[in-house]
Specification:
The chain has helices at residues 2-11, 25-34, 58-65, 70-82, 94-116, and strands at 39-41, 54-56. By secondary structure, it is mainly alpha-helical. It has a two-stranded antiparallel ribbon. The chain is globular and about 60 Å long.
């Protein structure tokens, strides 16, 4: 289908590794929770922008990510797309996923050390 073709092309793009320095905690929370948001994919829509094929509930995403309201996500979503930190199917690039996992592991280790020193 048309969506799968566009998604494959998007995922095959070479991405600058430097963009990972822009992965703030807010962007990370939004990217992680994006995979759990219910999405409706229109496979028949022929468009140059793959994101036109995706419908989702911004309020649900806001609740899953822990943001107080959807206004924050309205600001974050264009950055996530432009930096290609998320894909329309709910996945994220491998380098983004690896960085997210490393950040989470680092936070868990820090909490563990903190508890041990108490």
């Amino acid at each position: 289908m048309f969506f799968e073709k566009l998604l494959k092309e998007l995922k095959e793009q070479n991405l600058d590794i430097e963009r990972l320095h822009l992965l703030s905690d807010d962007l990370m929370l939004a990217a992680i929770s994006w995979q759990y948001v219910d999405k409706e994919i229109n496979n028949k829509l022929e468009t140059n922008d793959i994101w036109d094929c995706v419908k989702f509930d911004l309020l649900q995403w806001s609740e899953l990510s822990g943001f107080i309201n959807d206004k924050q996500l309205r600001k974050i979503f264009p950055r996530l797309k432009a930096l290609k930190f998320i894909y329309p199917d709910g996945s994220m690039p491998d380098d983004v996923r690896a960085l997210v996992r490393n950040k989470i592991r680092g936070k868990l280790k820090a909490k563990k050390k903190e508890k041990e020193s108490e």
